[in-house]
Amino acid sequence: MKTNYLKKYIISSYILVWLLIIFVAGTASLVFHAPPVIMWIVRNLIAWSPTYLLLICWKHFRPDETRMTFMKRCFSGKVKLHLLLLSFALTFGISVLSLFIHTVVTGKPMLSYINLGTTALPLSIFLSLTSGPTGEELGWRGFLREEFNKKYGFLKSSVCQGLVWCFWHTLLWVVDSEFTDWRAIPYIISNIVVITSITVLMNIFLERHNNLIYSVLLHFGFNIIYVFLDAGIGFFVILTVLYLVITPIAVLIRNKTAERLLKNNESGERKIRE
Questions:
Q1: What is the distance between the alpha carbons of residues 18 and 255, in angstroms, rounded to a whole number?
Q2: 3-class DSSP state of 43
Q3: What is the Cα–Cα distance from 250 to 122, expressed in whole angstroms?
Q4: Range with lowest mean pLDDT among 22-36, 157-171, 254-268
Q5: Rounded CA gap, 9 and 22, in Å?
Q6: Measuring CA to CA, how many Å separate 138 from each of 53, 132, 186, 205, 216?
Q7: Is this model's pTM higher than 0.70 or not?
């Protein structure tokens, strides 16, 4: 019977992150009462668990290939400055637009929802970058994307990847969220929609240029604002609606671009034959 390496990786990644949250983060918080910056570092270490798992247990998930070959392929695509800027600006801009609409609805100034906290700004930015954006992408957009792409077309593969990535955060919705009453329902729905949509957007970039730097910046562009954001559930509802509008438009543009490239290639082949 053929081994299902994709299933093994998904199950293992879920078990590992839950164990780390319960025993490492739980112990640091409840037993040692670690200060916020230490808990942030602990969360960052846990965010890297998909990469730890993949690289340490590599032979259990991809026995027919070396780690180095895989990693080179994950960063093999062209790096273009305008696309790097666009990848960051896309998710960051959607969050800022959501906050702007939220301020219009509530009648409060935008800065009233920003809390810089007690951690120095450069350290906050560094810790945000070295969390999920750099810690998760090799597993989710590297290994997981390749495995799902073997089974499905672009959209179905992207949605499956997004759902796996989304529900990997399930325990965090319980232990690391202020929305524990009725607001938990729209918050969870927002997570499912937004994380899946971001995966689709990431894969549009990666399909064009297979380099994880693009998904890292998309991820960072999404995460960075939440380091300082102190907004209610209304913000997340608006964010969900925007992603439900913007993501299908991006997919439509991607499909039309792919059709145009296909026609150009077919036209070029006919000219060569003639």
A1: 37
A2: helix
A3: 33
A4: 254-268
A5: 20
A6: 11, 10, 29, 15, 9
A7: yes
